[in-house]
Amino acid sequence: MALADLLLLGRESDLSSERGVSCDGALPAPSEPGLVQRAKVARAALGSSVMVLGHHYQRDEVIEFADITGDSFKLAQAAAENPSAEHIIFCGVHFMAESADILTSAKQKVILPDLAAGCSMADMAAAHQVDAAWNHFVKIGISAQTIPITYMNSSAAIKSFTGLNGGAVCTSSNAQRAMTWAFERGEKIFFLPDQHLGRNTAVQFLGLRLEDCVIWNPWKPQGGLSDKELIDAKVILWRGHCSVHGRFTRQNVDDVRARIPGVQVLVHPECQNPVVMAADVVGSTETIIKTVNSSPPGSKWAIGTELNLVQRLSRTNPDKEIVFLDKTVCYCSTMNRIDLPHLVWAMENLIQGRVVNQISVEATVAHHARVALERMLALP
Description:
With 380 residues, the chain is an alpha/beta fold. It folds into three domains: 3-118 and 333-361, Rossmann fold, CATH 3.40.50.10800; 125-240, NadA-like (Rossmann fold, 3-Layer(aba) Sandwich); 245-329, NadA-like (Rossmann fold). 40% of the residues lie in helices and 16% in strands. The chain is built from 16 helices and 16 strands. A five-stranded mixed beta sheet has the order 3-2-4-5-16, with helices on both faces. Strand 11 (264-267), helix 12 (273-278) and strand 12 (281-282) form a beta-alpha-beta unit.
């Protein structure tokens, strides 16, 4: 296979292409063995000057070559804590590579093997839309008491907006701490871009009511809300969601309980509120992994998160029964754009002295985004 044959997509910067998820009944086929050998040779040749980071949702053939695996923030932190790595190859999606670029030194270069590996959730909050919403908050006099909190799954521009306006970034594992921090500094929270994480955290862990949360729809005039609704609200949620986690329903939970007696339902907090309320355990990606790995032999789990991770947990826990919560096989197609051909292409170019698909955040945007990230890091 020629080097030019390795990459058919992802050379350009069209981050909106092929967003969302595929539900065609199967994960993509693994790459041919010869490509695996090329990956081994390239990785060995690059040595410690390169760090390969692999998100939990990546396919196995990519995870095999990752120096560190984890969720988006853990990987960005790992990059920042390894200044000796001249190049960071981030096997994830675009916002993750942006965060790594923000947190690493100017001497380090972050590479995303396929630029088309975006995130439908992050794309649901455009900077001009968020600015328009905030300008309306200013107009009706609520901006001064409103603290923005943005999920890690957001663009650098949205993180920058958050830092500029006194807010902080959060992850699915520390959203409760971040929102508590925000309420100590203001009366309202503007939570974006994932409505479900914001709502579930507010209701499950902060004691708020569903009625305390309203949804700002950027496609409707004034977000589809009256001034009174905005003034009365405790949490203003952006109308965004994860295309994978948003698929799970309460019916999925009921069906799996009927199908597998004694099963425990474990879901990510990006799921819809009725799913979260019906689950036995709710937690971040790292929490899901730890919960399953530490459970006793014979445990039965129905897991509501990305398919690659669920299948990996099933393989590494053969003494437990682990199933995907939805009967329909559904994986994140944008995350799966990072495949072995793209990884090999990026590594072999580095060997030849070429940096491809570098992710570089503009300095002013990076500055304010770093402020928001550092506020998260300083959370008690």
